[in-house]
Amino acid sequence: MLDLFNLDGRTALVTGANTGLGQGIAIALAEAGADIVAVGRSAATETGARVAEVGRRFLDVRADLSSTAPARAAVDAAISLSGRLDIVVNNAGIIRRADSLDVEEADWDAVIDTNLKSVFFLAQAAARHMAERGGGKIINIASLLSFQGGIRVPAYAASKSAVAGLTRALANEWAARGINVNAIAPGYFDTNNTAALRADPVREPAILARIPAGRWGEPGDLAGAAVFLASRASDYVHGVVLPVDGGWLAR
Ligand code: NAD
Fold first, then answer.
1. The CATH number of the domain where 176 resides is what?
2. Any catalytic annotation for residue 188?
3. Does 250 reside within a domain?
4. Is the pTM of this model over 0.90?
5. What confidence tens digit (pLDDT) does each residue in 174-201 have?
6. Is residue 251 part of a domain?
7. How far is the CA of 162 from the centre of ligand 1 (A)?
């Protein structure tokens, strides 16, 4: 039974794997057996060491995903590791906070380009390879703001709501090609992305009080969902946005 979750011999590309949720996901996939290709702006040295500790291969690819230019080269680099690409985790993302009356166009564009446009074109580049090979797994990192509006983050809410729609749209088109496209919607996790919230003496306790599990998430809390959606265990799962949120959306 547990063999369904085994990722031995697979190659996984994870964007933004140097820190935070991407790092947690990369380590989880490696522990399940996958070789890891980290794609991002900064060196993923610590992640590489953790992947090596569990005996998997690791490739670190520099790419700025605020534009779609590196998408094809990143996929080609991933394939060069072992001749195949089985899993893509579209994790890299940014958030810009401002009252909606004050949002600047450059900030709007940066968020939409990184969180949405690059997600589509990286998925497209990977799916062209996966379709030829008979299948693969694409996991997009959505958000609670795929379901809710949030506060002072309109571009982020728009981008993550669109990621949910994109996940369903791609699942519809690519399921018949053996490609599973799904998303994980993390709740409130302790990473750089939420540093401003955790430092806010009003927002932090208000958020914590609303989480049924009674604590913020840690990157390792995504391990099970990520391995499930990356493995044969999810072969008949298409187009879901799976909340991993300590119960936040259940309230
Ligand atoms: P983080 O800021 O620690 O990590 C973001 C990652 O994305 C980093 O590796 C960063 O280098 C990378 N990145 C950002 N812009 C990039 C670019 N232009 N090119 C290449 N890489 C780029 O935050 P995190 O919380 O780990 O965020 C990971 C994902 O999870 C994001 O998509 C975020 O929106 C999402 N998310 C986070 C939370 C949370 O509570 N932390 C909740 C829901 C969703």
1. 3.40.50.720
2. no
3. no
4. yes
5. 999 999 999 999 999 999 999 999 999 9
6. no
7. 16
